[in-house]
Amino acid sequence: MTPAEIHSQLAAQFGAAVIEAKLDALDPSIEIAADSILEVARYLKSDPNLRLDALNDLSAVDYCEPDAAKQKKFGHEPHLEVVYHLYSYTHKHWIVIKVKLPRWKNDQTGEIPDLASVSSVWAIADWHEREAYDMMGIRFTNHPNLRRILTSEDWVGYPLRKDYEFPAEYHGIRNH
Amino acid sequence: MSTQLEDPRIVEFDVRTDEMLVNMGPQHPSTHGVLRLLLRTDGEVVHEVTPHIGYLHRCAEKIGENLSTPQWIPYTDRMDYLAAMNMNLGLALTVEKLVGMEVPDKAMCLRVIICELGRIASHLVGMGAYGLDLGSFSPFLYAFREREIILDLFEEVCGARLTYSYITIGGSTHDLPTQITIPPGLAQLVGKSPRTTLSWIDACTMFLDWLEKRIPEYHSLLTQNAIFIKRTAGLGVLSREMAIDYGCTGPVLRGSGVDHDLRRDGDKIYTRMYKGYDFEIPVAPFKGAPPEVVGGDNWCRFYVRMMEVSQAIRLVRQALAKYPTSTGAYRVPFKMQTKLPRAEVYLETEAPRGQMGFYLVGNDSAEPLRARAKSSCFCNLSVTGPLSAGCLIADIPAIVGSLDIVMGEIDR
Questions:
Q1: Quick check: is A78 in a domain?
Q2: How many CA atoms lie within 13 A of B394 on its CB side?
Q3: Domain CATH for A103
Q4: Which of A16, A155, B237, B245 matches a 20 to 30 Å C-alpha distance to B293?
C-alpha cells in the first residue's frame, strides 16, 4: 500500500484521531492523537491490509530552542514528538506514525508527559520506550518495566532534552 | 547422627535449592564486552535472564546533535567498532538522502568493495569469538589471522585499522591506492617476498583467492563439528514471529527463516548500490544441515553468517572487476557546514549485525535537530531474556554469542 492509501484507511477507521499527514515528505508520516495511539497501533499491526508487524524504530524528538536569541529562526512550537517507524514484512510497505506531546505535563516544568505504551503490540517497544523515557522523559503508561536503560537508575534529568543541564557532580565525580 | 542418613536416598531427594541471583558480567569474558546479565537460577537451570546495558554509553546521540553530520562520522566508527565501515555508510547514505545527493558509479563500486570486506572481517570475528565462547580456541586464531589482512588492506586505503571514518558523505575520503607493498601477513600466507609491490586490487584478489579455500576448513572446525552441533543445535530457538516481534534483524532474523535483506529489499538509495550484482541471501532452514538442527536455533544464526562470508566474497570479486571501468569520481564534495533542510529521514542499511538505522531531523542548520542511531544489536539483545528462560547456565554464552552483539553499538 502507498502511504496515501494507508492514510485514507486510517482516516476512515479512526476519523478525528488522525490529525495530519505529510505524504509528500521524504519519509511520509501520519500524525495521530496521543490518546488513541494504542488503539491505532493495535489496528496497524492486526489489520490484514496493513499488517505492520515490525517496529523498526521508536524514538522521540524534542522541538525546543533554549537560546532566546535563536528562537525566531527556530520555527517550531516547543513540543515533543514520538516517532514510530513501522514496516510490514508481509506487504513490504512502511510508514511513519507520529504523536505530539507537550514538553511538560500541564506546563509544570519537571512533570513529564504521559503516553500509552505500545509494548503490548510490539515486544521491542519495551526497550525502545525505556530508552525514550530515559533520554527524553516520556512516561509510558502501562509499560511492564519502565526503568532507565542507558543511564544509571539514580540519574537526574533527561539528557536528550534540549534544555538539559549537565550535572556538576555525580557521586563525587566532578564535571570540569 | 540422625536416622535420616541411614538411607542416603532420602537425603538426596530432600535437597532443595533456593533460587539464586547470579551476576554474569559486566566483566565476564563470554558476554562480549560490558554486558551484565542478571540470572535467576535454580541450581544450573536458568529461570529468568535480565540484561543490564549502558556501561559503555558515550552520549553519541547528544554529541551528534551538537556537530555537523560529517563531524559525526568518526563517532559512528565507535558504535560498531568491528564493522566501522558499514556504520560510516549508514550515516553517509542518510545524509545523502536528506540533502538529495547521488554519488557516482565509482564511489558506489568502491563502497561495495569496502563494505563487503568489512562484512567479512566482522563475521570472521563473530565466528572466531563464538568458537571461543564454546571452548574451541583454534577458529579464533584462524579468524584473526584472516581479519588481520583485511585490516592491512583497509590501512592501505585510509590509514586506520579500526576506526576508519573512510566512507563519508558524497563518497569516500580517498580513492583506492594504485601501488602498495604486499601486507606482511598476506606475503607470509601466499609465500611471496614481503617486498613485493602490486596494485591494491591485485592484493585484494590474492587475499580472496586464499580466503575462499579456507572456508571449508572453518566448516569442518565448527559447523560440522560434533561438539559444536551439540552445543548449538536445538538451543535458543527463536521463532519467526518472535524474531519479528522483538525487532530482530540481520543474521538473527534470517536464521529464523525470514527472507529479508536490505541490500535487496531496502530503500532505493541503498539498493542502487547493489544493482547488477549477483548474490544470494542465505535464509534458514538449510538443506544438508545436521539432523539435530531446528530452524531459528543458535546453529542457524551461526550458519547464516558463514554463508554470508561466501556471498560477500562473491560481491567483492564482482565489484573489483567493475571498479576499473566505473565512471565518475570517488567523491562528490560535501562542505563541512552544509545546512540540512527542514526535513527528516530515517534510513536503515544492512550492517553485518543487522539493520542499522540513522534518523536525522534537519532544521536549516548544519547540526541536526535530532540525530538518532537505532542499533541492530540493541533489538537483537532484547530477545536474550525470552530465549534463555529454562536453559542451563552453560548455554547462556552459546545463546548470547549466537546473537553476535557489540556493546559499543548497543550503548552508543
A1: yes
A2: 6
A3: 3.30.460.80
A4: B245
Interatomic CA distance for residues B290 and B225, integer angstroms? 10
Residue B378 CA to residue B382 CA, distance in Å, equals: 6
Rounded Cα distance between B270 and B195, Å, is 39
Structure confidence by residue, pLDDT tens digits, B304-335: 999 999 999 999 999 999 888 888 888 888 88
Domain annotation covers residue A176: no
Phi, psi of B266 (to 5 degrees): -85, -165
Q: Which residues of A touch B346 (CB under 8 A)?
A: 27, 56-57, 83, 85, 96
The long-range contacts involving B85-88, CB below 8 angstroms and separated by at least 24 positions, are: B85/B114, B85/B115, B85/B117, B85/B118, B85/B154, B85/B164, B85/B166, B85/B167, B86/B115, B86/B118, B86/B119, B86/B122, B86/B349, B86/B351, B86/B352, B86/B356, B87/B351, B87/B356, B87/B409, B88/B164, B88/B165, B88/B166, B88/B167, B88/B168
- What is the per-residue pLDDT across B212-253, written as a single tens digit (0 to 9) for each? 988 888 888 888 888 888 888 888 899 999 999 999 999 999
Chain A positions with Cβ closer than 8 Å to B:
25-27, 53-57, 59, 61-63, 73-76, 83, 85, 89, 92, 96, 122-124, 126-127, 135, 148-152, 159-160
Residue A175 lies in a domain: no
Q: How many separate domains does chain A show?
A: 1
The class that CATH gives domain B18-411 is mainly alpha
Do residue B54 and residue A150 have CB atoms under 8 angstroms apart? yes
Read off φ and ψ for residue B403, nearest 5 degrees: -80, -15
Three-state SS at B61: helix
Contact criterion met (CB < 8 Å) for B344 and A25: yes
Contacts of B59 (CB under 8 A, 6+ apart): A159
Tell me: pLDDT of A162 over 70: yes
Range of the domain at A164: 3-168
pLDDT at B8: 53
Q: Are B316 and B113 in contact (CB under 8 A)?
A: yes
Residue A88 contacts residue A82 (beta carbons within 8 Å):
no
Contacts of B369 in chain A (CB under 8 A): 61, 63
ipTM value of the model?
0.90
Nearest to B372 among A59, A148, A151 (CB): A59
Contact B383, B246 (CB under 8 A): yes
pLDDT at residue B407 is higher than 70: yes
Confidence of residue B3 (pLDDT cuts 50, 70, 90): very low
Give pLDDT, residue B123.
93
